[in-house]
Write a structure and sequence with these properties.
Chain A is an alpha/beta fold. Chain A has six helices and 13 strands. Chain B is an alpha/beta fold and 325 residues long. Classes of the chains: A alpha/beta (258), B alpha/beta (325). Bound molecules: flavin-adenine dinucleotide (FAD) and adenosine monophosphate.
Chain lengths: 258, 325
């Protein structure tokens, strides 16, 4: 199977985020970056599928973003992806979900993959849409929130997460697009050998403008801000010991839950 | 504004989240301009329920191929309906798993982009949604022509205002039959199932200590277990802890896990992503321990300790033991 995995680079989870001066996005200076977590699970699922399918499989990473995205792509190659396509694009935040999906679809289409995997949601924008739109643009069937993929005679059988601890199996033909939920597998680490080999793997870059995928955005992010506080939380000050003692007292006499 | 409100059913009943979406729709236009849409193969009872709400009319989108949800079936049917009902200015959904599965494709088919997971609607209209896992909010607007697609987050709009209208006549109901061909439906969904027998009932626990990724390693879980024991509480967790296999999934709290409402919920090293909050924000008293003073969990907490959990948790266990003596 030829599998494409769409991977987004996002700010590291514990990074301190500051609003940029123009109020339209965060200040990206001094940020640490990481692979979007569900995308790491999508990559893992792709690698497992390839490994179970014999020698003919291929896993290709595609990622859109500025220069810095290359480090996340290398990480994916070090984990075992075969090659990568980087869509160079410095105005990712000026594009809506359809705009980004158009870029990805344009890069994916000529590859004619059997399967496209994306994460179900990005940790920064949290749109939860890009994979579904890519499917629509490529004219392929899709399924979302997938935890497990199994190859069958006629296509795929996938395990889909539903709300509140329920699941469902879905059968669909290939080629198809799946959006992957975290937690379906255990993530592998890149080995030293893998990191070494990644340096020699094929990483093709293409400028966003060359893909012929431009369009005017249908939705615009006007402004970002810190959320307004709605509830007044009593923060208990002092050392760990003092705060703990104060909390026990409050829980006993004020909240009466002890 | 003319608003199309797409209701969602579960086991033949309209989901509560759909009535929250109605509250959002009422922010955009008066009841007479709202068209409620029920969709499926047998929608008579659903339509009657909707007709008693503050809406202008109800449309039943009926077809045998819509008996079971599929993205292909729902996209085809709703696209035809929206074109037929033109001009529709806004299409409102609740941000459920089902809507996430098809609404982005439906919007794309119509050259639009869904503004998903909206938590507030301001004049303009501007649609507010969370960014960076709840640490920031962003204000979005629709630009250009054609309908604007919006889905609203569970719990963000309170449905008290959407009680039935006493004394008023029910809204008129019509039926729309889309053209759908079985060959258009490419996916074959199976029946929902649960993973395994549940052995813990977090739903009835009086006290819960819940642990998140701040705990760093499975080996560190013992300190929260000791705290839970000192409190006489059940141990629960955020999703990443269960994803890593450090605790069984039946102890996961949130939209894809359990919904709990204990008298005391103590969140340790949990950031407070919305998918976690929806599972616990009904708790009577919420305490958060987190080293980040801006963590969204403090938005819902009654009491907070800003600090390193590896110092605070053992100190709290000690203080509880001391208080018992
Ligand atoms: C469709 C969908 C469904 C989901 N369902 C669920 C669900 O049911 N339940 C759920 O929980 N999540 C769910 N999630 C995931 C959710 O979005 C978050 O990713 C998750 O809740 C984050 O878990 P966390 O707070 O433990 O980790 P993080 O977000 O990584 O937060 C860790 C926190 O620990 C704090 N911390 C770190 N070190 C320390 C220290 N030494 N002392 C004190 N504090 C410290 C940090 O400041 C941070 O706030 C779902 C996501 C999606 C997309
Ligand atoms: N710039 C990008 N490059 C590669 N993949 C992306 C990009 N943006 C989004 N994706 C993919 O789409 C998924 C959903 O993102 P979103 O719709 O932003 O929540 C992510 O998990 C990625 O797999």
């Amino acid at each position: 199977m030829k599998i494409i995995v769409a991977i987004k680079q996002v700010p590291e989870r514990d990074a301190q985020v500051r609003i940029a001066a123009n109020g339209k996005w965060i200040d990206e200076a001094d940020l640490q970056w990481a692979m979007n977590e569900p995308d790491a699970y999508a990559l893992e699922e792709a690698l497992l599928l390839k490994e179970s399918g014999g020698a003919c499989g291929e896993v290709i990473v595609v990622s859109a973003g500025p220069e810095r995205v290359g480090s996340t792509i290398r990480e994916a190659l070090a984990k075992g992806a075969d090659r990568a396509i980087q869509i160079l694009c410095d105005d990712l935040n000026g594009r809506d979900a359809l705009g980004v999906a158009r870029l990805l679809a344009a890069a994916i289409k000529p590859e004619n993959p059997d399967l496209v995997l994306t994460g179900l949601q990005s940790e920064d924008l949290g749109l939860g849409q890009t994979g579904v739109i890519v499917a629509e643009l490529l004219g392929l069937p899709h399924a979302t929130m997938i935890l497990h993929v199994e190859k069958t005679e006629s296509g795929l059988k996938v395990k889909r997460e539903l709300e509140e601890g329920w699941f469902q199996s879905i059968e669909l033909p290939t080629p198809a697009v799946l959006t992957v939920q975290s937690g379906g597998n255990k993530l592998r680490y890149a080995t030293l050998m893998g990191i070494k080999r990644a340096k020699t793997k094929d990483l093709r870059t293409v400028n966003a403008a060359e893909l012929g995928a431009e369009g005017t955005p249908a939705v615009v992010l006007d402004q970002i801000a810190a959320p307004k506080k709605q509830k007044s939380t009593q923060i208990l000050p002092g050392s760990a010991k003092e705060a703990a003692a104060a909390l026990v007292e409050k829980l006993k006499t004020e909240a009466r839950v002890l | 504004m003319s608003v199309l409100l797409v209701l969602e059913q579960s086991c033949g009943k309209t989901r509560r989240a759909s009535w929250e979406a109605l509250v959002a729709a009422l922010r955009l236009g008066p009841a007479e301009n709202i068209t409620a849409v029920v969709i499926g193969a047998q929608t008579e009872a659903l339509a009657a329920e909707a007709a008693a709400k503050p809406v202008g009319k109800v449309i039943r989108v009926e077809h045998p191929l819509l008996a079971q949800y599929t993205a292909d079936g729902f996209c085809a049917a709703l696209q035809q309906l929206i074109q037929n009902e033109s001009p529709t200015e806004v299409v409102v959904f609740s941000h459920t798993y089902q809507v996430r599965d098809y609404a982005p494709a439906l919007a794309c088919r119509m050259g639009q982009v869904l503004i998903g997971d909206v938590v507030a609607i301001e004049d303009g209209p501007k649609f507010v949604r969370q960014l960076m896992q709840g640490r920031l909010i962003g204000s979005y607007r629709h630009s250009g022509i054609g309908p604007c697609f919006v889905s609203v987050q569970a719990g963000a709009f309170r449905p008290d205002a959407t009680d039935t209208r006493p004394g008023a006549a029910p809204a008129p109901i019509t039926t729309f039959t889309p053209t759908i061909d079985a060959a258009q439906i490419r996916t074959k969904p199976g029946e929902p199932f649960r993973a395994s027998e549940q052995t813990v009932d977090l739903g009835s626990a009086q006290r819960i200590v819940s642990v998140g990724r701040g705990i760093k390693e499975a080996a560190n879980l013992s300190i929260v277990q000791e705290l839970a024991t000192a409190l006489g509480a059940e141990l629960a967790a955020s999703r990443p802890i269960c994803d890593n296999g450090w605790l069984p999934m039946e102890r996961q709290v949130g939209s894809s896990g359990q919904t709990v409402a204990p008298r005391l919920y103590l969140a340790v090293g949990i950031s407070g992503a919305i998918q976690h909050l929806v599972g616990m924000k009904g708790s009577q008293c919420i305490v958060a321990i987190n080293k980040d003073p801006d963590a969204p969990i403090f938005e819902v907490a009654d009491y907070g300790i800003v600090g390193d959990l590896f110092e605070v948790v053992p100190a709290l266990t000690e203080a509880l033991k001391a208080a018992k003596q």
